[in-house]
Design goal:
The chain is mainly α. The protein has 2 domains: 7-99, no CATH class; 111-145. The chain has helices at residues 7-18, 22-28, 35-42, 45-82, 86-99, 114-144. It is built from 6 helices and no strands.
Length: 145
């Protein structure tokens, strides 16, 4: 499907393809804010088809980019092998696996809250005991008499 003849419709479709909400895309395309009209325009067959076309083109170009990067890494690996540079070859293999999604880098974030929680718990317990003892001391003589 070619570019839409109505420039505002085309802009609206492009903004929807970017992931904007219908209301936001409607205003950014040059219309006055109106959620009902934005939803109605989004339902037009020409708009829906154009959004799918734009999204499909984006996905295809991303696919080509990943494929071309994999090809380049394979070329680099073969060159490293021919030069006897095994570490460079292994690195290229590793990068290809990561790019293809076969290897996932894991990061661990250690948060040391246990000591802080224990300290806070001790402080709260001490405050509670001080208040309880003070309160009991004030009431204790009354209870005896």
């Amino acid at each position: 499907m070619p570019v839409l003849a109505n420039q505002r419709h085309e802009k609206f479709a492009q903004l929807l393809a970017e992931g904007r909400s219908a209301s936001e895309a409607y205003v950014l395309a040059g219309y006055r804010a109106n959620r009902h009209n934005a939803a109605r325009l989004k339902s037009f067959e020409t708009i829906r088809a154009r959004v799918l076309e734009i999204q499909g083109a984006g996905a295809k170009s991303a696919e080509i980019t990943v494929a071309s990067l994999l090809d380049e890494l394979e070329h680099a690996r073969q060159r490293a092998d021919s030069l006897g540079q095994l570490s460079a070859s292994v690195r290229a293999i590793s990068e290809k696996a990561r790019l293809a999604g076969l290897m996932v880098e894991r990061q661990e974030i250690a948060v040391e809250l246990l000591d802080d929680l224990l300290r806070l718990g001790e402080e709260l317990l001490q405050r509670f005991l001080r208040r309880s003892v003070a309160h009991a001391t004030l009431r204790w003589p009354d209870a005896i008499t």
